[in-house]
Amino acid sequence: MNNNPFNPFPVLKTDRLILRNVEKTDLQDIFDYASDLNLTTYLTWRAHQTLADTEGFIEFILASNERHMGATWVIVWKENNRVIGTIDLSWNQKHYSAELAYALSRKYWRKGIGTEAVQEIVRFGFEEVKLERIHARCHPKNEASYKLMEKTGMIYEGTLRKSMRRKGKQEDIKIYSILKSEFEG
């Protein structure tokens, strides 16, 4: 019996989205948003400069997903079948917890898409993975990200001082979480 909810890779669907494993054919769609300097302002990774950067990113995701200790899904907009972002859940099986992270094309901001994707991953985490806690982190100036966390039921826990290395600098990071009891309540 397989007790790993990430093997086989879970494909999730919402009203407007498909969350699935990355494919090599997603190269141009991913490059289109990952090369946006404004998107990556507060992210830990730099904007992709070449298609080779994106190819490396795809290979990294595929290798990570092969380990089945969480998942990185591409976010597919059903309306046009385009990849418009990624969302991942890094599973700490021993502690029944996971970290959530996401990036979404700026063309799709302020349409509730991030909220829809996060809500589905949170549901999957609590119902399928049987987690007790899901947390997410963001740069203190990334208002759109922490507002999304709040909108999806996450509670601000605090700011971890100088806890993350981002683009060569040690910086503070805000942390939010949601517990299974809060999700069910």
TrEMBL record:
Coiled coil location: none
Tagged with keyword Calcium: no
Domain N-acetyltransferase: 17-176
Enzyme superclass (EC): transferase
InterPro entries in UniProt: Acyl_CoA_acyltransferase, GNAT_dom, N-acetyltransferase
Gene3D superfamilies, sorted: 3.40.630.30
Keywords, sorted A to Z: Acyltransferase, Transferase
Domain of life: Bacteria
EC number(s) stated in the UniProt entry for this protein: 2.3.-.-
GO MF terms held by the record: acyltransferase activity
Name used for this protein in its record: GNAT family N-acetyltransferase
Organism for this UniProt entry: Oceanobacillus aidingensis
